[in-house]
């Protein structure tokens, strides 16, 4: 039996996150967006409040929450500022390879540190010339005894300017594609690690994003997260377990845009009436709510699958591309209700619009998610109905469906023939009897 009720503990976590969002994030969100700067103290406060590192296992001192709890927290923070929600959740993304690795030494060393101290860890697969094409990375990992030497650049790395640790994916041989990819835990203070300038972005400007360059950086064997050939699977598994939460970024921001639009529509008057008295506006609001609710349910489903030990890959992709795309639509429609005021920087809609353009790109573009889903549908999906050539289109006016009725269907044009044997030739398309398949009885 399905149950969409939250537990008392989940409700407390959601409410605590909501208070944090309203009291600490919202008042400074536009200020730091204008400055194009990450307020690091907010991340520290999130850590102190227990709303960061939610998925770290209890055995290492973490809270051991699942993705559903992450979805609750991220929706609330994103409702106040999607950029800060991105930087807060980024620790879960960066730590995921540590939880997936088969290397017990690196897990035992770093996970307790993340649980007990305010430390930031980021995740890097993308490069200046390799974003969605993870297998196309060029950052080089060269074997040196039991260690590896890293050379190259990772790009679009969230929190890299403030992170203490990096989960880095690199290749031993670019010509091997995904088979050459390995993963490593690198510390910021190591010789040869250089963090680039903050990348100036259109939106989510209060979230730090920069490149990281490696010049002969030695990674000891105990810091290898995935051996060559295992790194690509680790990266894809990480995305499957974090993509549902990208949906929550969209749900939170869209919910805020919807609430602002409702408030404005009730108060703004035009043509002698409130905007909410016009059916065109009412329909927009109804569709906003439908999209927010649907996006949340898809996100929760993907998170629940992960927490239940199921493979969430397909649900995660659906949740990500649906929730992020409808978030942009909801914010755009809310801006339309505000009219010219919505387009100014004096009202909150323009920041929401800028912030919501990014989730359709990071952690796999909407196009990549459609590739994932379409491949599953074409290659892995198990249909309930029979193939079209076996479909029993039996017409009552042609024959009574007695127990001994036999029906044959032309695989070319769909004509149904009744009789113990198929016709020598189809009367419609003239294909021979070999084109017919028995469709009844089954």
Folded structure, characterized:
This protein is an alpha+beta fold. The chain folds into four domains: 8-116, Butyryl-Coa Dehydrogenase, subunit A, domain 1 (Orthogonal Bundle), CATH 1.10.540.10; 121-229, Butyryl-CoA Dehydrogenase, subunit A, domain 2; 233-379, Butyryl-CoA Dehydrogenase, subunit A, domain 3 (Up-down Bundle), CATH 1.20.140.10; 390-442, Rubrerythrin, domain 2. Helix content is 44%, strand content 16%. A hairpin with a 5-residue loop joins strand 11 and strand 12. It is globular, with a radius of gyration of 27 Å.
Which shape, going by the Cα principal axes?
globular
The helical percent reads 40-55%
* Total number of strands: 13
Number of domains: 4
Query: What class do helices, strands and sheet pairing give?
Result: alpha+beta
The CATH homologous superfamily name of the largest domain equals: Butyryl-CoA Dehydrogenase, subunit A, domain 3
What is the mean pLDDT? 95
